[in-house]
Amino acid sequence: MVSGQRCSLVLRGALQRVHAASVGARVVDVTTSWSGAGGRKSLACAGRRSYGHGVVTEGDRATAWSGRVVRGDRGHVRVLGPDGRVVTARIAVPVSDPLEAPCVGDWVTVAGDAGERVVAEVLPRRTLVERAEPGRSSRHQPLAANVDTVAVVVGLDQMPSLEKVERLLVVGWSSGASVHVVLTKSDLAADAADVAEDITTQLGADVLVCSTRTGEGIAEVAALVPAGTTLALVGASGAGKSTLVNTLAGEEVVETSPIRADGRGRHTTVRRELVPVPGGGWVVDTPGLRGVGVTGPDGLEAAFTDVADLAASCRFRDCSHQVEPGCAVRAALDDGSLSLRRYESWRTLQREGLWLRRRADRRLAAEEGRRVRQSTRAQRRLRRERGR
Ligand SMILES: Nc1nc2c(ncn2[C@@H]2O[C@H](COP(=O)(O)OP(=O)(O)OP(=O)(O)O)[C@@H](O)[C@H]2O)c(=O)[nH]1
Ligand SMILES: [Zn+2]
């Protein structure tokens, strides 16, 4: 077993690099825009969120330090600090929206001491990989924050479904990060190159092919995560994400993953954590995604630039691409330059996104109504008490 000291050294170097990156993020601050790679979409950052009201004093905030969440659990997070140590910090105040909760990859400020540490603030997120919560509720779950690249991991042990890959590409592009498809298990498919070619031409995605068994393409995948950057792996369960994380992390780091925190406790697994890779970057595995909800129109547009470009040249701005004259989408379907499969996949994801957004709007309206009623009741109570 490698000592905590050695782990700290590995992590410290990587942390210094990411800390340097965070300084930039803090200077640019809350309302900056961030442009996705390839000039695809510009996403506004979420604002800085404070936590621990009533728990964290102003004095505590003055001495708080910033670090990166390497692992998120219910009620607390594990935070890598500037000294290379990983500590546990409590999320002192429950958040009503799961998206508000700190997640892996978040930069947070931590207040308190060894007795009790709490998350005082979550710094603005540059990017966020999220999914609709299972059960098709309108709520979204944060999976990984401040990710530079998303790898849509697809196993070649089965014939990939283009629709499933498209759905994951939308999740990837919705995050604001740049996106690649990584086809794993090439050792199990004689036609790996053909599948890659298909995905490139039909989905317009950048595709890498690799195998953790033979080592084919691993260097190319490792190149997706240069020093100071973060790569998130998304994909169905069994696609080979965890194996890829371990391969990218290398023997050395897998061995060093059970980091000692405060001299006690060890990580039992490297999964769903930010894992440092030898080049100085970070890799994060996300839970196997089955019912992935499409979050916003930006990701859909970025994953379907071909359809979005066509739709932009329809005669009517609100063209439904069904019956209207001058519809460029239908024209492309007619002349075969847009496949029916691709069009239908786009329609499905678009409808789903609309449905989720409408539901979210209704939920937000209901929550707002509840808040207003609570506040009115509280004000009445206060007036009554003062009147006594
Ligand atoms: N032949 C072959 N098998 C692989 C390769 N990569 C992963 N596997 C196998 O595929 C299976 C699933 O891999 P995992 O890494 O656990 O898949 P995962 O995507 O993390 O799955 P979840 O944790 O359920 O989300 C395991 O049995 C791996 O050994 C590969 O390159 N070649
Ligand atoms: Zn149209």
At the third CATH level, what is the topology name of the largest domain? Answer: Rossmann fold
Second rung of CATH, namely the architecture of the largest domain: 3-Layer(aba) Sandwich
- Tell me the β content: 15-25%
Strand order of the largest sheet: 3-8-7-4-5-6
Q: Provide the CATH top-level class of the largest domain.
A: Alpha Beta
Quote the average pLDDT: 77
Task: Please identify which CATH superfamily of the largest domain we are dealing with.
Answer: P-loop containing nucleotide triphosphate hydrolases
Give a quick account of the main beta sheet: strands, pairing sense, barrel closure. Answer: 6 strands, antiparallel
Kindly, what is the distance between the CA atoms of the first and last residues, rounded to a whole number of angstroms? 68 Å
Number of domains: 3
Give the ligands present.
Answer: guanosine-5'-triphosphate, zinc ion
Subcellular location: Cytoplasm
Family: Belongs to the TRAFAC class YlqF/YawG GTPase family. RsgA subfamily.
Keywords: Cytoplasm, GTP-binding, Hydrolase, Metal-binding, Nucleotide-binding, Ribosome biogenesis, RNA-binding, rRNA-binding, Zinc
Domain CP-type G: 136-292
